[in-house]
Amino acid sequence: MNHAQAAQIIQANQEHFNKVAVDGGYDSNPFVEQVTRQIAEVIRESFPFDEESTVLLDYACGTGQMSRHLAPYTRQIIGADITQGMVDYYNQRVYNQGIPPDQMRAICLTGTDSDLDGQKFDLIVCSQAYHHFPNIAAVTKTLASLLKPGTGKLFVADLMPYDTSIFKQHGQGQGHQGHGHSHDQGHGHGHGHSHDQGHDHGHSHSHSHGHEAHEESHDAHEPFQGPAVVRKGGFEESEIQTVFTEAGLVDWQFIENAASAEMKNKRVELFLAVGRRPES
């Protein structure tokens, strides 16, 4: 993917997710809420949370659904996203709940090393975002570098392989493969950032630019399709394991059915991949 294509993906993701934020995010989507809750429960069972010390990065945080599920078990949660609208929505909800910013806040990623001020995290969660990234290897390396050496763990949840026909509308074409975000400097998230230097943010979905793609529904509350989705059809375990290994992560774990829910009368399953940053 060249820089021009990456820039188009970034812009498409930002436009799409700013609209989603204005519409209230995915908070009202029962599928997203169900699988997010299930994934959060598995993460809680898989990591020794300490509400006095655990610092968590919710990468590609969106409106903060995952953050809200895990916040009671942490000392601090930082959400990170490339979409300002999502970040504003996240922070407004935190403010409305009376939670201090030093305990929970979101930042809008710019693709620079100063975004997180060199902070390291006990765990990083990236849920339902890898299918937005044009370069999951770069994103994974970036996230691995943000973990505390020796103990920090990365948790990535996304779609198991699935039949893409469940997202077709009224028998129309092949849909949108998506527009992820790609940042050459690397830092991720939101829905589609990919940085060549390893700081990848976001969700990226490759996008078919045929006419049929533009005829499909652009419902902002329909996950896993549309102009913000780069990757369609889910991920094989071997693909995720490869990028974890290349990022230097160890203690590989892959939970095949970490979450599942009905969508368009079909069962869709999500995996949870886990890796730890070694001491050196």
Automatic annotation (TrEMBL):
Spell out the InterPro entries in the cross-references: Diverse_substrate_MTase, Methyltransf_25, SAM-dependent_MTases_sf
* Keyword terms: Methyltransferase, Transferase
Q: Please note every region of biased composition (Basic and acidic residues).
A: 181-222
* Molecular functions (GO terms): methyltransferase activity
Biological process per Gene Ontology, one example term: methylation
| Region of interest called Disordered, as start-end residue ranges on this chain | 167-226
Q: Which residues form the Methyltransferase domain?
A: 57-150
Return the PANTHER family for the record: METHYLTRANSF_11 DOMAIN-CONTAINING PROTEIN, METHYLTRANSFERASE TYPE 11 DOMAIN-CONTAINING PROTEIN
This protein's name:
Methyltransferase domain-containing protein
Q: Which organism encodes this protein?
A: Serendipita vermifera MAFF 305830
